[in-house]
Amino acid sequence: MSKLNECLNRIHNASLPDLKDLERVLSLSGKDELNELFFFADDIRKEFCGDGIVLRGIIEFSNFCFRECFYCGLNKNNRKLERYRMNKDELLKAVGYLVSCKIKTVVLQSGEDSGLDTPWLREIIREIKSSFDIAITLAVGERSALDYKVWREAGADRYLLKIETSDEGLYSSMHPQMDFKQRLDCLRVLKELGYQVGSGNIIGLAGQTLKTIAQDILFFKLNDFDMIGIGPFIPHQNTQFGGQEKGDALLSLKTIALTRIVTRNAHIPATTALGSLDKDYRVDGLKCGANVLMPNFTPQPFRKLYEIYPQKRCINEPVGACNFCMDDMAQNLGRFIDYSKADSFKQGRVNSNV
Ligand code: SF4
After folding, report:
1. What is the Å distance from ligand 1's center to 236 Cα?
2. Could you tell me the distance, in angstroms and rounded to a whole number, from the CA of residue 239 to the centre of ligand 1?
3. Whose alpha carbon is nearest atom 7 of ligand 1?
């Protein structure tokens, strides 16, 4: 057994892996060692998640946001962005189309939109649940515990709220008017309400180090999230971070691989951001631990306006085109598309199939 293999086994089997071990693996650069890491992670993915590639269809229903996150094109200071908010008919029509493509999970995503009315979204959730047998994931940011409760009771199954970085100082440096502890509190409340909860981070943020990424991976382990999204930073010209370098694809892949090894059975997507660098690295992500793809079902003309970062992939494709692309991707990998709701693999948290 090689030294690296020993280290990966140690990381995999530890109840809380050693930070130094994680940093060491994140710093790997040799081709053979990287291959060993990625094969190891792929084996864990196969053992704990199987060969199915799970689909989550995203509908970005509003790009309004009152936050000022320094890395995000939707931030309120980007006055060049044309804002939109889909109405109920537009949203339900998009969900209907997604269902006709056999997708069993819809992710309803928006900026932190102060105009998002709690009862309005509650009615949308109820209508979707009464019309279709699908799971609903919400990704609308920090809200009150009462809002989370109302939507959960209406039938929402899952919630995505990325931490972006688990380093409180780093988090504060790029999230004006936001409170790290408040974000942790939201994650706690969501779990208590019985949502399947997803979090995640961005790779390549200014001030981030291998140590902070290693800490993120420990944060994922400690919180035992159902889903973890990891994507490279891509600068947007109309933000504070517009002049910074893109996040590194290889470091993103190493983080995915280690997160798989550490968390075992979390759902981990090959993110759209990973597919929007100099080439489409989503296939590489699927080969080193990822088991989820997120096709975009936001209809035009809205889709091109949900510009968190520029040159986002699949921005001009007709809605539904992603299906063919994803089938191809799965076949080329010798895997298959899993058209089930694909609830959490974590024991006791399967709730959208009941
Ligand atoms: S990251 Fe989210 S909360 Fe921050 S500006 Fe972008 S959409 Fe708004």
Report:
1. 13
2. 11
3. 111
Q: Which ligand 1 atom lies nearest to the CA of residue 110?
A: 7
CATH of 30-338, one of 3.40.50.300, 3.20.20.70, 3.20.20.140, 2.40.110.10: 3.20.20.70
Please give the pLDDT value at position 353.
Answer: 40
> Mapped to the 3 state alphabet, what secondary structure does the chain carry?
CCHHHHHHHHHHHCCCCCHHHHHHHHCCCCHHHHHHHHHHHHHHHHHHHCCEEEECEEEEEECCCCCCCCCCCCCCCCCCCCCCECCHHHHHHHHHHHHHCCCCEEEEEECCCCCCCHHHHHHHHHHHHHHCCCEEEEECCCCCHHHHHHHHHHCCCEEECCCECCCHHHHHHHCCCCCHHHHHHHHHHHHHCCCEEEEEEEECCCCCCHHHHHHHHHHHHHHCCCEEEEEECCCCCCCCCCCCCCCCHHHHHHHHHHHHHHHCCCECECCCHHHHCCCCCHHHHHHCCCCEECCECCCCCCHHHCCCCCCCCCCCCCCCHHHHHHHHHHHHCCCEEECCCCCCCCCCCCCCCC
The residue extents of the domains of the chain are 30-338
Q: Is the CB of 111 under 6 A from ligand 1?
A: yes
- pTM attached to this predicted model: 0.96
List pLDDT tens digits, range 247-294: 999 999 999 999 999 999 999 999 999 988 989 999 999 999 999 999
Q: Is the CB of 67 under 6 A from ligand 1?
A: yes
